[in-house]
Automatic annotation (TrEMBL):
Superkingdom to which the source organism belongs: Bacteria
Segments crossing the lipid bilayer: 20-43, 63-82, 87-106, 112-129
All residue ranges annotated as the DUF7144 domain in the record: 20-131
Organism: Jiangella alba
UniProt xrefs under Pfam families: DUF7144 (PF23636)
InterPro entries in the cross-refs: DUF7144
Keywords: Membrane, Transmembrane, Transmembrane helix
Full protein name: DUF7144 domain-containing protein
Keyword Transmembrane helix: yes
Length: 136
């Protein structure tokens, strides 16, 4: 016969596993979104708005490579997170935060898309932190 405490811990473990799976999927999705941003900038540099008096004067080509590198790292972290490793979770948290920051800086070039990606980054960070992977 199982006690009430075993049922609770099993339920908590299942929530944690679901949170990690969700976060891993979100990280891969974020990587795809970042790749689309980067590829768009490489294919058509005139697609994104030109911001003449912006404090962070980075060319669209540089943004393309920043997004593509982040895309690759986010997808790798997402696939590694499926393994449930604490190290992968820490790296995924850091990369999601870095992705949110890069999209915040990219905000004047393409605001709506950047806000969507920032929201998904924050949601991924929440899912990883809430999953309990760091306390196992």
């Amino acid at each position: 016969m199982t006690s009430m405490f075993e049922t609770r811990s099993t339920r908590a473990d299942s929530w944690a596993e679901t949170g990690v799976m969700f976060a891993a999927t979100m990280m891969i999705l974020l990587g795809v979104f970042q790749a689309l941003e980067g590829l768009t900038a490489l294919i058509d540099e005139n697609f994104y708005a030109d911001v003449p008096a912006y404090a962070y004067d980075i060319s669209v080509g540089a943004w393309a490579w920043i997004h593509l590198i982040l895309a690759l790292l986010l997808m790798i972290a997402g696939f590694a997170l499926f393994g449930g490793s604490r190290v992968a979770a820490g790296v995924a948290l850091a990369l999601a935060a870095l992705s949110a920051i890069s999209n915040f800086l990219f905000l004047p070039h393409y605001p709506v898309w950047s806000l969507i990606v920032i929201a998904l980054c924050v949601f991924s960070i929440w899912a990883i932190a809430r999953s309990g992977i760091f306390v196992r």
